[in-house]
Amino acid sequence: MSEGSDKQAEIALEQRHVDRVYARLDELRAEAAAMRDKSYEYGREATPEALNERDVMLHHANRTLQALNAESEGLVFGRLDTASGDAVHIGRLGIRDQRFDNLLVDWRAPMAAAFYQATPEHPENVVRRRVIRSSREQVVDVSDDLLDPDRAPEDMKVIGDGALMAALSRSRGETMRNIVATIQKEQDDAIRAPEGGVTEITGGPGTGKTAVALHRAAYLLYRDQRRLGGPGVLVVGPSPVFMSYISRVLPSMGEHNVELRALGEVLDGISTARVDEPRTAEIKGSSRMVKVLRRALRLPPPDEPGELRIFYRGAVLKLDAEELGAIRRRLNNKGVPPNKNRMKAADALLEALWQRACELADEHFRPDREELITEIGERIEFHRFLVAWWPALYPMQVLRWLSDPARLARAARKLLSAEEVDLLAKSWAELTEWTVADIALVDELRVLTGPPPKRREPVAEAEQPSTEAPRRPFNYDEYAHVVVDEAQDLSPMQWRMVGRRGKHASWTIVGDPVQSSWPDPAEADTARAEALGGQHSHRRFTLRTNYRNSAEIFEVAAEAVRDLVVPGDLPSAVRTTGVAPEVREVAEAELAGVTDEAVRELLARAEGTVGVITTMARRAEVASWLSGVGDPRLRVVGSLDAKGMEYDAVAVVDPEGLAAESSTGRRALYVALSRATQLLTVLEPR
Ligand SMILES: Nc1ncnc2c1ncn2[C@@H]1O[C@H](COP(=O)(O)OP(=O)(O)OP(=O)(O)O)[C@@H](O)[C@H]1O
Q1: pLDDT by residue (tens digit) across 556-582?
Q2: Pairing state of beta strands 610-614 and 676-685?
Q3: Measured from the CB, is residue 182 less than 6 Å from ligand 1?
């Protein structure tokens, strides 16, 4: 038989199994739906036992349905043939037939581990590993690795090779796909590492860090649904664009109970994607801000009343600015969050008024302490004063007050330079929308001020809490596991914010120091260590193969940072396409026209997405050059939004400008140049 007809025969063989799996899947769906309907019946009886039973049934039925209804494409993707002659099919979920025999083994089950772990050197009882590729319910291809030729039966067929290469060469769509069929051994080691403590995954661009982190989340949820499922898993990533790009990976594996948040969306009730100029973001992210904010809270409110004057039984009791200042200092020194100190503030004022009354006492005026305190304490004018002098503090308002350079300079004395104060004050004075770096400051202030009285913060229209109520309590901090992607870019203030969400969590931390856009890694490391608390167990995995870029593209990207790193820090790209990137110098006046032309050419040549990456400052300008293109596969992004993203073809416009704009220079360029899977064009203004 020819290789072609052998392959058709093997495809037909697998199709028969796949048909059985889908038929059984239909049965299981029907059973789960029936169970859900039955649980409603139970509810009608309304006894506490029946209601409890109903809730358990309903929860179970809904979870099962959710898992069974996950994207059905590629449900069965692998098969292992063992030395003892058994065949095991591997899939995105586990399915048993009516006799309870395995029709499909979940990729996360121990039985499936050999699919990822077996190598010709250590075949682990596996003779042949097969990757099955399907389109909907139709098997279209099989691809085999023969791991143990000596133990293979005579008639065993081995078809084609390179399931991984085929997967990597395929064009990319809007969203990231799961990689369950082709997870590589070094990746699988990180995915299946124990849950507790901190698991750190590093590696260069395209080594699959994000993919591995998401598959690890799915794996951990599968292995310990009870511990992780309730408290939940949080995944934090750089931008909303990125979160949307990775949003389908977990649901495609049947996992819905994972919260995905960009750094500008971590705090409940407010979300932003706006970024500051690098220098401003750097100051806002620095841990010096903790002290600045602490001090800012101790300052009197901007419209603080200058004196307190109360008429009491013919006497005028007066506290002047100096006396009020001394009372404020004493209250501040107690270290209690100001919103929790409001009663104490009232008591301190009344006590000072009593002292004043004592000083004024004579034969006509004989004040009584209890009487004075009760009477003045109930007066509306006293309360008006208190509200103005010691107002309830709302984090966003406190931050907005710092747009006054004099006020900020007081809070930042000896912490920020005059130039830094100006930059920050200006950024808040010109505020139309909060920035991503502000969110961590607002979160810090939330803790420092303490909870304000239960009245909605007077926020501007754009900052109104989103109407979509979070499923968990506001600013929930009980996640059982937190995944941080692109961790190299978190500022110290952002580490503090994320750390608050995982007080009792185990962690998966994913990043690449070489791609860092944070200028002071040591400061961020300290904040990170604090955020992770006293986690003792710490394991580290390094991924060394770049699966995204063609070798030709990665060669150009690596050039940008070659002299900044040791050779071992750069991954090796495994796939050659024979297509060299195009690097062109263009006169500035012609840049718009040439960009338009180059992008149209990339769209014509690439099957999937095309990304145009430029400086943050020129984003809108470059987008306007391309407004006539009108192809939904085209994306124009600034360098920061390109973090973690991937496109089939990329045009990098103004690479030198991009490096110059970032505080980490060529590292930012390295990120931009390493986004393409197939084609890269670089346009450098002359
Ligand atoms: N084992 C694999 N099989 C198939 N595709 C893979 C595999 N590993 C990684 N990929 C693909 O390689 C690309 C890069 O993966 P990913 O985005 O996770 O890399 P990364 O290390 O996070 O990159 P960066 O640091 O540049 O953000 C993705 O398209 C991913 O699906």
Answers
A1: 999 999 988 887 889 999 889 999 999
A2: unpaired
A3: yes
Say how many Å lie between the CA of residue 93 and the centre of ligand 1.
Answer: 22
Weakest-pLDDT range from 221-230, 341-350, 417-426: 221-230
Tokens 């082709």, located at residue: 182
484 CB contacts (<8 Å, ≥6 apart)?
236, 490, 498, 507, 508, 509, 510, 511
* CA atoms of 66 and 254, how far apart (whole Å): 6
CA–CA dist 329, 293 (Å, integer): 16
Question: What's the CA gap between 148 and 228, in Å, rounded?
Answer: 38
| In contact, 390 and 325? CB cutoff 8 Å | no
Q: Using one digit for the tens of pLDDT, what is the confidence trace for 457-483? A: 454 444 444 434 446 788 888 899 999
Ligand 1 touching residue 547 (CB < 6 A): yes
Q: What is the pLDDT of residue 46?
A: 65
209 a known binding residue? yes
Strands, E assignment, 26-175: 76-82, 87-91, 95-96, 102-106, 126-135, 138-146
The pair of three-digit structure tokens given for residue 5, joined into one six-digit string: 């007809």
d(CA 282, CA 76): 47
**pLDDT range class, residue 587, cuts 50, 70, 90:** very high
Under DSSP, is residue 288 helix (H, G, I), strand (E, B) or coil?
Answer: helix
Atom of ligand 1 nearest to the CA of 181: 3
pLDDT tens by residue, 398-426: 999 999 999 999 999 999 999 999 999 99
Cross-strand partners of 540: 200
- What's the whole-number mean pLDDT along residues 318-342? 93
Q: Is the CB of 203 under 6 A from ligand 1?
A: yes
